[in-house]
Design brief:
With about 260 residues, this protein is of the alpha/beta class. It has helices at about 1-5, 15-25, 45-60, 85-105, 120, 125-135, 150-160, 180-185, 195-215, 225-235, 235-250; strands at about 35, 60-65, 110-115, 140-145, 165, 190. It is globular and about 70 Å long.
Length: about 260
Amino acid sequence: MANAAFGLPDLAMTSLTEVAAEVRRIAAVTDLPLLVDVDTGFGDGLGIGRTVDEMIHAGAAAIHVEDQVAEKRCGHRLGKALVETEEMVDRLRAASEAAAAARQRGAGELAIVARTDALAGEGLDVALARAQAYQAAGAHAIFFEAATSLDDYAAAVAAVQVPVLANMTEFGVSPLFNRSELAEVGVAMVLYPLTAFRAMNAAAVAAYAEIREQGTQVGILDRLQTRSELYDVLGYEEYEQKMDRILAQRAERGEK
């Protein structure tokens, strides 16, 4: 979201309001459940409670909260600093309480995923202990970030009784394990958070290079989405038909 919508690095530079706006745009065009990265929660206590409310109102199905300090970094970069386990537990309790309150008043459901970045800097045993504490604090799933082996994931799965999520982001510290390999060790969910984004960026660079060098896009037409393919995705013709009906009704009434 930071990269694609704002051209910013993943360094906690987007606000709750900006993230909520993007969530509303995504949720408006799909019935699939949406998991939203809310970094470290946009505050503590009451602030995290507001984050939960905003995400529910925007249409999110789940959020994941990180155990890094507020000045967080990408999970696959060096220099990550974590808050104490107790502080992360407080974040999760605040999120869980807000989600429960929203459910009771009929506002909607929101799953809470706890992400731990402890493995890279604090080791497997600490990461597993954190995962267990986060489950006890109300997390519905554990995001086990920056694992470097299937054994790491298997250990996380064995340590908790909630689903474990693996992040298969390209060019990071985690090997790009096959989905079946991850399933065999018990991983329940897999993220591919930037795969399409990277593919689109690379394709855009190549397309503009072609135009710059050749003076036309004719040579890459077979690699472009066609007009009809785009219209199919958007449901363009259905919208156009609705517009035609509206215009016809206006014409019948003698309106311009």
